[in-house]
Amino acid sequence: MTPFKILIVDDAPQDIKLVMECLKEKYTITAATTGEKAIELAAKTKPDLILMDISMPIINGYDTCKAILKERQTNIIFLSANNSTEEILRGYAAGGIDYIIKPFHPDILHSKIEFALQRTEKKLAISGEKNHTSIDDIYRLMLDFNKKCLHITDTQHFANTLIAQCESIHLDCCVQLHAASGTFEASSSGLVNRLEAEILTRILQEEGNFFAHEQGLFFTHENIAMLVKNLAPTNATEDLKKSLSHFIENANTMLLNLDHIHSLSQQDNHQPQSNLPGLKDRFGRIFEHVDLQKKYKKESVQIVDDVLADMESSFVDMGLTYNQEQALLSMLHQGIDKSIKHLELGAQLDEHLEATLKDIAATLS
Fold first, then answer.
1. Is the pTM higher than 0.70?
2. Cα(first)–Cα(last) distance of the chain, in Å?
3. Fold annotation for 5-118
């Protein structure tokens, strides 16, 4: 098997030598000490991956990266002693897929290179017409996602389902969830690359719930950060941004609910089965869960109502005819009716469960 080709770009010869010593036994290595030479070598040797220094004279690493990617797509990992959020965002905007902080550990260097070379390159073949996402699409997305959440008990499954639902309306996304049981990620391209993961983590710590960026739009709410890659900030209306923000807020509510269920399950697993007082405590926690479930369902309905209200108020700006407005409203209300019936059935089941639990709790008194 022909070794992968790696181009090292750094204006410090000693740094190039250090990297070459780490990689020479596994990869075919070429090197450049300037951005101009890197552009020339990239066109000539067509490397599988480029390790790019940032601080270089004349042409810095960001501009070199853009120039190379303009001619040919390849994996570019930045090398930098600066790990600020601003630097990371600049690297992502330039087209980098990862970054390595200097000084680096050889094992980290190898793992990041292997990850980049093996990462899934699944791309969505989206036509210009299909790439147009409407507010109605977001509303339908929220309804479908809420239904699927009723059957989700695993947080990674939750993240994967969120991405699958976004793909159903032709959104190319990656998402990061911060749950009680850990951090979970999913992406339309199969894997969240490490640069995206780091940005999602940092962007969640920033003030606000919406961020425009060269690579797309970021949406955050408490424990969820999502990047929509194929929705340019200039093409997204304020109503569409607001609808996507509502969707992430709704997903966060579902995630909190899933966290609470997981917490109750973990507590129950550690309780002695023969402990009668412990059973009473567990029933008390179940009643708390039932009350919380009711609260979350009410919040979910309110979020859907808010989205519908936003849509109705935006019809004038859309320039729709009366018949178009009525047709769209009819379709939306049919979806709402189905969702409400579904929630009402769930509420009835909750009431039956609560009554049964009260009967059992009474026998323990």
1. no
2. 72
3. Rossmann fold (3.40.50)
